[in-house]
């Protein structure tokens, strides 16, 4: 129980940090400092990915199950009927 609360707190903190980095990037870009704005935009994307990973770990800690997605490649199994991009 405490673990999910800690993880949820981290998710919230990372989301706030990502929004702050994104707002800083926008402000810098408006002032014409695009090279620094790009750095902060990249940081916002990175921190957003951290939040997503903590969110998935918290979901698993709460007891969620992992669903396997069907493969997206063509011809991956004998019964696959999706044409490959090379054939199209």
Describe the structure.
The protein is flat, with a radius of gyration of 20 Å. Helices cover 65% and strands 0% of the residues. It has a domain at 2-61. With 88 residues, the chain is mostly helical. The termini are far apart. Helix 1 (2-30) packs antiparallel against helix 2 (34-61).
Q: Could you give the count of β-strands?
A: 0
Please give the share of residues in helix: 55-70%
| Major sheet description | none
**Category from helices, strands and their pairing:** mainly alpha
Name the shape in a single word: flat
The secondary-structure element order is HH
Notable traits:
2 helices; 88 residues; flat
Give a short summary of the structure.
This protein has 88 residues and is an all-alpha fold. The protein is built from 2 helices and no strands.
